[in-house]
Specification:
This protein is mostly beta strands. It is built from two helices and 25 strands. It has two domains: 160 residues, Immunoglobulin-like; 142 residues, Immunoglobulin-like (Sandwich), CATH 2.60.40. The strands form five sheets. Strands 4, 6, 7, 10, 12, 13 and 14 form a seven-stranded mixed sheet that branches. Strands 17, 19, 20, 21, 23, 24 and 25 form a seven-stranded mixed sheet that branches. Strands 3-5-11-8-9 form a five-stranded antiparallel sheet, with no helix packed on it. It is globular. The relative contact order is 0.16.
């Protein structure tokens, strides 16, 4: 069957990056290596204008979106993991050929390894995980760069640009029927004033004299740390499990006064924290949410990846959409 669709959006990853090597015991400066990583595009195959809001309706039948991924790294294989978020939550989806045959079973992330200009076209098929009848919720596609990458030593646990998130412009789903809704709604966050040392951090871009005015316009900051760790946005260390459990601290502040849903991922799969599926946080100007989380990691391999993704829920998705923490190395004995 000849494809009559046109690609709507293209998102790429830079071909060249600077990678930091580990520091030697002799105290030598970090090695700087230039390495070609890969580039790719992904997006729906729809004949719409670039500034047009893409809309879908869920009326009780599965949503089917024609989609594409394509490699753009010359002389290398570009690796990416594709996933969708609906109303702030990770969305399981299956892939079908454009002729309607099953291509891949239901999964939260589908990995691709694409040569230069190698292209795959397919349908993304799913029943929305969330949304009330007559509500309009956000649909965002994201791609993780080189999802299979894992540091080989706790002495150099840096993921760097690996596992970085690239996302499309949000689309919209009009909910006209009951959704799958098989999650637990729960919030275990408390709010406190943002510490001045964070607001005066030049890397954040906020200053004391304009801190509270800027909170309405700055993007939110979200981070993961060891449970007793000092709040810092640039933490790139190791999280250690103890007796089959790991305790971590998640924090978020800044941005708009919206309701966010936060999901934890281990090895790119959503996991329960504190016995629930996600954390819901209603943000306030000048306030920071701090959440202590407990994860059961009995059956994990020695090294795993750990990160959190936050997406705005409800109709505010167009105000503030999706954000990811740095990926951390989770070590389980």
């Amino acid at each position: 069957m000849k494809n009559k669709f046109k690609p709507f959006s293209i998102v790429g990853i830079l071909l060249s990056i600077l990678m930091l090597g580990c520091q030697s015991e002799a105290g030598q400066e970090d090695l700087i290596l230039e390495e070609e990583i890969g580039a790719f595009s992904f997006g729906p195959l729809l004949d719409v204008e670039l500034d047009e809001l893409i809309q879908f309706e869920y009326n009780g039948e599965e949503i089917r979106i024609p989609y594409h991924v394509e490699g753009w790294g010359e002389d290398i294989v570009s690796e990416l993991g594709l996933f969708f978020f609906v109303d702030g939550l990770p969305q399981a989806m299956r892939l079908e050929t454009l002729e309607g045959e099953l291509l891949r079973e239901n999964a939260y992330m589908h990995n691709f390894a694409l040569a230069f200009q190698e292209r795959a076209e397919f349908y993304v098929v799913f029943t929305p995980i969330s949304g009330e009848i007559d509500e309009r919720v956000g649909l965002i596609a994201g791609a993780i760069l080189m999802p299979e990458f894992m540091p080989d030593s706790i002495d150099n646990p840096i993921f760097g640009i690996f596992h970085s998130l690239t996302a499309t412009i949000p689309a919209e789903i009009l909910i006209s029927s009951e959704t799958a809704g098989n999650f637990i709604e729960y919030s275990d966050a408390y709010l406190e004033l943002v510490p001045l040392e964070l607001l005066t951090n030049e890397e954040v871009g906020s200053y004391v004299d304009e801190a509270f005015e800027s909170q309405l316009t700055h993007l939110p900051n979200i981070g993961l740390l060891p449970s007793e760790g000092e709040l810092q946005l640039d933490y790139e260390g190791v999280i250690f499990a103890d007796d089959g459990q790991v305790t971590i601290r998640l924090f978020v502040y800044g941005g708009q006064e919206v309701t966010n849903r936060i999901t934890l991922f281990i090895n790119h799969q959503p996991v329960q924290v504190n016995g629930v599926d996600f954390i819901e946080v209603e943000m306030e100007v000048g306030q920071m949410a701090v959440i202590d989380l407990i994860l059961d990691v009995d059956e994990l391999s020695h090294f795993s990846s750990l990160y959190a993704i936050m997406m705005t829920t409800g109709e505010d998705y167009h105000v503030q959409d999706i954000f990811k923490t740095r990926t951390l190395l989770l070590v389980s004995e």
